[in-house]
Write a structure and sequence with these properties.
28% of the residues lie in helices and 25% in strands. The protein has 7 helices and 12 strands.
Length: 243
């Protein structure tokens, strides 16, 4: 039984490594859960180095005992996964901004510490069970018919910030006012579609934008009209009389 468990673990790790290699060179940060599993299994840390998920926003590297070579390996793997060292907190509660010299000093003195790793790029949250199964896309009414015919495609126009083309998806329909309240949204007559993420079965990749993290996610992928439902305005409803 132990051999079967070990074999399954090796297959899973192989899949993780292949997934990381697939997106190598892209400006992305891999999901925290996957990244922690990579860090745990792609090195011989023993009990001296452990990894924790901090609020699904940072990775904590808890170091009781490690060599400089081991920490360099941690930093190399985390960098490839899209994370950078930002802060070091010592056992007595004091902390400093990360530097190579500070890390070396703690290692040489065998001082326990916690290293915080932060995402270099917007964080991927595909498959995160905290993402609602139904998300919402808000756009201008003039795009309604086109969306119902061909679905959603990433666009860079009429967005609040400069960035590659993407589709924003909000967590709640009640947050429509949040987007419409910003004049940079470019939306005059609002139109809202629900997106059935559950039916998509992770066919699209979702990312958290630091400037949008409490309200929703975005994707670079197309979304077929079969996963979309018009929720505002309802068919035949005059949106101007309800805005």
């Amino acid at each position: 039984m132990r051999a079967v468990h070990s074999y399954r673990h090796m297959i899973k790790l192989k899949q993780i490594i292949e997934n990381v290699g697939l997106y190598e060179g892209l400006s992305i940060t891999h999901p925290i859960g996957t990244s922690i599993e990579m860090l745990q299994n792609w090195g011989s840390w023993g009990n001296g180095v452990t990894f924790q998920n901090f609020n699904n926003a940072k990775i904590l590297v808890i170091v009781n005992k490690a060599s400089l070579e081991e920490m360099n390996q941690v930093l190399k793997i985390s960098n490839n996964l899209g994370y950078f060292p930002s802060y070091i907190e010592t056992k007595n509660g004091s902390g400093v901004k990360y530097t190579d010299d500070e890390l070396k000093k703690l290692i040489i003195n065998s001082s326990p510490f916690t290293l915080k790793l932060e995402a270099k790029y917007d964080l991927e949250v595909t498959g995160d069970d905290r993402i609602p199964n139904i998300l919402y896309h808000i756009t201008d009414l003039k795009f309604k018919d086109k969306i119902q015919n061909i679905g959603l495609s990433p666009r860079s126009k009429s967005k609040i910030a400069e960035h590659p083309s993407r589709i924003y998806l909000m967590f709640s329909p009640n947050d429509m006012g949040f987007l419409l309240g910003n004049p940079k949204s470019g939306i005059k007559d609002p139109c809202m579609f629900s997106v059935d993420i559950h039916k998509l079965h992770n066919r699209i990749r979702l990312f958290i934008d630091p400037n949008f993290s409490s309200k929703g996610v975005y994707t670079y992928d197309n979304i077929s009209p079969k996963y979309l439902t018009l929720v505002f305005p309802s068919e035949g409803e005059d949106v101007k009389n309800n805005s």
